[in-house]
Amino acid sequence: MIDDAFAGVQGQLGTTTACRLTGRSRATHYRHLSPKPKPAPSPRPTPASALSPAERAAVLELLNRPEYADLPPAQVWARELDAGNYWCSERTMYRILSAAGQNGERRRQATHPPKTIPELVANGPSQVFTWDITRLPGPAKGVWFHAYVIIDIFSRYIVGHTVERAETAERAEELIREAIERNGIVPHTVHADRGTSMTSKKVSQLLIDLGVTRSHSRPRVSNDNPFSESQFRTTKYAPDYPERFDSLAHAREWMEAFTSYYNHEHRHSGVGLHTPASVHFGTAEEVRDQRAVALAQAYERHPERFTRRPRAPEIPGRVWINDPAKRREPEPQGS
Fold first, then answer.
1. C-alpha angle with apex 142: 138 to 143, nearest 5 degrees?
2. Is 319 helix (H, G, I), strand (E, B) or coil?
3. Distances (CA, A) of 55 to 46, 60, 67, 82, 88
4. Mean pLDDT of the 75-92 span
5. What is the dihedral of CA 255, 258, 260, 263, to 10 degrees?
6. Which residues of 4-31 are buried (b: 16+ CB within 10 A; e: fewer)?
7. How does pLDDT run across 136-168, given as a tens digit for each residue?
8. Under 8 Å CB-to-CB from 184, ≥6 apart: which residues?
9. Which CATH code, of 3.90.1300.10, 3.90.1150.10, 3.30.420.10, 2.40.128.20, is assigned to 120-267?
């Protein structure tokens, strides 16, 4: 603002008057017109205590010896001093490493190859099962029951479930065995996340004995087990889901009733709004034909109420976990 005001009156009133009116010092004005060149910075003199280039090279060679390559300078400094050798200060060692571009982590870092993305497909029931364990709130804070649930990904039918006081590999192995025996058909693949029960020797040995392919989610990627996660959400958003279960018997009773409802009454959006049981046991196409007849009759009665001839929802012919044609890499979750 002052510069604009000064420039506006300087041409008419002169420099002295313009400086007086705008409050600018004449000396400052003329100094800005002819500024003195800034002196070049003088080089910093080398301290008398500095190491010579040969000595710095010797210290860097010392720090890179095989026995010291993964140790921090403090360890190297102390060990050499214990051996009667003083090379320089610990801080100088850090400066030498920094100048050489070696001031990062010196220890060998663990490297983990990327986990294989599970790509599973089912074009019919009893081909791919997925299972998981979720916690149910017990009668008091900090008390939990554990619900084990096994799902057929094609039909969304719950083929096995139980509620226990704790998560154990023994109970998981029993449940999987019972579910497969009750289903009557051995699935090609059983998928789960990487929990301790899922990766246990008991469960792994059972699947090997049955000739079932084991599949696991990548660490901290819940999208690799979407059907179990979705079913748990449906369970916990049920209208009568209790705030707390009074006892293990109460949790088992409620879970049994909910599973029966889910399998035989719930119309699942993922299977053309059929019940999981209807898709699993092969009656869904008959139901779809009945729906098509009802829709056709409704259209014949009032065609003006439809923009096109209505069709009954279709049942997907293939169900994927991580369809490679549609897959989008999720962000890993925090541990």
1. 30
2. strand
3. 15, 9, 20, 20, 9
4. 93
5. -120
6. eebeeebeeeebeebbeebebeeeebee
7. 999 999 999 999 999 999 999 999 999 999 999
8. none
9. 3.30.420.10
The CB-side HSE value for 88 (13 A sphere, CA atoms) comes to 22
Predicted pLDDT of residue 82: 94
* Residue 249, Ramachandran bin (φ over 0: left; ψ between -120 and 50: alpha; else beta): alpha
Question: Which are the contacts of 191, defined by CB distance < 8 A and separation ≥ 6?
Answer: 118, 120, 128, 129, 130, 131, 153, 215, 216, 217, 225, 321
Cα separation, 196 vs 47, in Å, equals 61
Structure tokens at 62: 């010392």
Domain ranges of the chain: 2-32, 53-99, 120-267, 277-321
Neighbouring residues of 221: CB distance < 8 A, sequence distance ≥ 6? 330, 332, 333
Q: What single string gives the DSSP state of each residue in 3-20?
A: HHHHHHHHHHH-HHHHHH
Is the per-residue pLDDT at 335 higher than 50? no
Tell me: the pLDDT tens digits for 258-283?
999 999 999 999 999 999 999 999 99
| CA atoms of 175 and 131, how far apart (whole Å) | 10
What pTM did the predictor assign?
Answer: 0.68
Give the residue-averaged pLDDT of 160-179.
Answer: 96
Q: Which residues contact 280 (CB under 8 A, 6 or more apart)?
A: 125, 126, 152, 154, 155, 157, 263
| Rounded Cα–Cα distance for residues 298 and 180 (Å) | 43
Six-digit token string for 239 = 């209208």
